[in-house]
């Protein structure tokens, strides 16, 4: 029997049942996501050490590489993997072979979940055939895990965004899955019920508050005066519990209220975005993480643990879109950007720094100021930003206030550091030179990066950025190739 929003008696009974179920106290998990799309990245052993020192019990990586599995082996940290190449697992026999080859590492690394692909139900870039392939891989992989005796330990699942839900809702009880994907979602949820797999969704707080026309402070726990009142006396004061209960309501309406719900990704950018800075990120986590650890739950599931993964451990300056590059708690040198207590206890502390990270010499590559051939300057600027990361120059970024000459210097230096200070990388057709005088300003840091680490098997996925110049200042915009994650989020902005 499908549950109707208009049936208040049934909803009240379900609401009461959820409260009774939630009374059994189980600790919530605060995990951390770690991606490696960066020019200077921490080695896996250093990351495991960081997580252990900071009391992190679970982590997610965006790969299934054996070197990562081996680094986490014996650490006691529960690990979530990601398999992005669906063709590797598009039959039961392939999945069986994949599980057999990774059997020891899956056990030793305490792998708990394997996420398949990226947002299979998103609109625009996904078609029915792709969705069917994703659903088939889900079945094949979990069956192979079950047959290998790993089914109790490892669960296969997908990640999702709020794009799965119908637009224009004003409160969580109105949430339901989009009609065109509802049958596939039902199939997925029945599978999750049979195998104990979680329903995982990601939250980008600043985007969701815009999508729902909310007070921007609604993105923060405990800061907004806005209140969303729902049925059965439910009251929402922040986007975290609002989004969580929206998915719970959508599950209820498909008779899947017993499926575990997890937040697979939530965070706040520290650069390249208006209000994206370290102090705002610190404020965001200072409200969120104690809330998650408090066992408060949500209005629909009071007292229920909400497993939540912080995004992310480090910046990823080679990701395709500049908005996604500065979500890290740590800089590339292993030093934290802001105070955060990853145990959720709310302590006013900096997380532990990574050990053994060596910084390159204090020197920078800068523009010599020669604008005689303006087009040549622009060509070299374009090259530097295409091959490195100029996202801090975009509107709202920490370096968006710079003069044109400083913009060019920032771009040249970023490329120079990406190339680990190879002197040949500071040429730019005679427009640059190396200096030991720090060109940084009070707001904008011209980075000096760390020495080259282990970069094997790295495949660059960055795309060229377009820009225009207005009054001597650069304004960056992405080209037409945008990651699925961002398209999913941007789509939500037009719901209302």
Q: What is the share of helical residues? A: 25-40%
Number of strands: 15
* Helix count from the secondary structure assignment: 12
Which structural class do you get from the secondary structure elements?
alpha/beta
Question: SSE string, helix = H, strand = E?
Answer: HEHEHEHEHEEHEHEEHEHEEHHEEEH
Rg of Cα set = 23 Å
Low-confidence stretches: 1-5, 8-25, 454-496
Overall pLDDT metric:
87
* Major sheet: arrangement of strands: 5-4-3-2-1-11-10-7-6
Strand content: 5-15%
Shape: globular
Query: What is the straight-line distance between the termini?
Result: 31 Å
For the sheet with most strands, the description reads:
9 strands, parallel
From the structure above, extract its key features.
single chain; 496 residues; alpha/beta; 9-stranded parallel beta sheet; two-stranded antiparallel ribbon; 12 helices; disordered C terminus; X8; transmembrane; membrane
Write up this protein.
The protein has 496 residues and is α/β, with parallel strands linked by helices. It is built from 12 helices and 15 strands. It has helices at 8-22, 44-53, 66-72, 92-108, 128-147, 182-195, 205-211, 239-252, 278-293, 374-386, 404-418, 484-492; strands at residues 30-34, 58-61, 78-83, 111-116, 155-157, 159-160, 199-203, 228-229, 235-236, 261-266, 308-311, 364-367, 432-435, 465-470, 473-478. The strands form 4 sheets. It has a 9-stranded parallel sheet. A two-stranded antiparallel ribbon has the order 8-9. It has a two-stranded antiparallel ribbon with strand order 12-13. Helix 3 (66-72) runs parallel beside helix 4, helix 4 (92-108) packs across helix 5 (128-147) and helix 10 (374-386) crosses helix 11. The two termini are 31 Å apart. 47% of the residues are buried.
């Amino acid at each position: 029997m499908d549950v109707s929003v208009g049936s208040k008696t049934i909803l009240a009974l379900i609401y009461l049942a959820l409260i009774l179920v939630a009374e059994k106290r189980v600790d919530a998990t605060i995990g951390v996501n770690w991606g490696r799309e960066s020019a200077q990245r921490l080695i896996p052993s250093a990351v495991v050490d960081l997580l252990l020192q900071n009391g992190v019990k679970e982590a997610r990586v965006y790969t299934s590489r054996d070197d990562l599995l081996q680094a986490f082996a014996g650490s006691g940290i529960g690990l979530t993997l990601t398999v992005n190449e669906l063709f590797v697992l598009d039959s039961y026999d392939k999945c069986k072979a994949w599980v057999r080859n990774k059997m020891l590492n899956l056990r030793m690394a305490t792998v708990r979940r394997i996420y398949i692909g990226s947002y299979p139900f998103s609109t625009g870039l996904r078609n029915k055939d792709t969705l069917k392939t994703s659903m088939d891989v889900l079945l094949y992989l979990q069956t192979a895990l079950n047959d290998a005796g790993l089914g109790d330990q490892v669960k296969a699942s997908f990640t999702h965004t709020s794009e799965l839900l119908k637009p224009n809702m004003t409160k969580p009880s109105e949430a339901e899955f989009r009609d065109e994907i509802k049958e596939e979602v039902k199939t997925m949820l029945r599978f999750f019920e049979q195998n104990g797999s979680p329903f995982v969704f990601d939250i980008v707080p600043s985007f969701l508050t815009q999508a729902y026309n909310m007070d921007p402070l609604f993105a923060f726990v405990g800061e907004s005066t806005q209140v969303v009142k729902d049925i059965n006396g439910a009251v929402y004061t922040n986007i975290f519990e609002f989004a969580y209960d929206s998915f719970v309501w959508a599950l209820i309406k498909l008779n899947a209220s017993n499926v575990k719900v997890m937040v697979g990704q939530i965070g706040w950018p520290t650069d390249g975005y208006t209000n994206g800075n370290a102090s705002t990120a610190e404020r965001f986590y200072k409200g969120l993480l104690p809330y998650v650890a408090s066992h408060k739950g949500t209005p629909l599931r009071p007292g229920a643990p909400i497993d939540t993964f912080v995004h992310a451990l480090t910046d990823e300056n080679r990701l395709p879109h500049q908005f996604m590059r500065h979500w890290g708690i740590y800089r590339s040198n292993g030093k934290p950007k802001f105070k955060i207590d990853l145990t959720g206890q709310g302590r006013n502390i900096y997380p532990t720094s990574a050990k053994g990270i060596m910084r390159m010499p204090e020197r920078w590559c800068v523009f010599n100021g020669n604008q005689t051939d303006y087009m040549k300057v622009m060509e070299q600027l374009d090259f530097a930003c295409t091959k490195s990361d100029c996202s801090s120059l975009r509107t709202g970024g920490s370096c968006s206030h710079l003069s044109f000459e400083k913009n060019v210097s920032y771009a040249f230096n970023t490329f120079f550091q990406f190339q680990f200070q190879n002197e040949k990388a500071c040429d730019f057709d005679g427009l640059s030179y190396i200096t030991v005088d720090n060109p940084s300003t009070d707001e904008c840091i011209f980075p000096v990066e760390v020495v080259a680490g282990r970069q094997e098997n790295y495949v660059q996925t960055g795309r060229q950025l377009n820009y225009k110049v207005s009054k001597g200042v650069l304004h960056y915009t992405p080209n037409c190739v945008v990651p699925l994650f961002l398209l999913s989020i941007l789509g939500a902005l037009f719901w209302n």
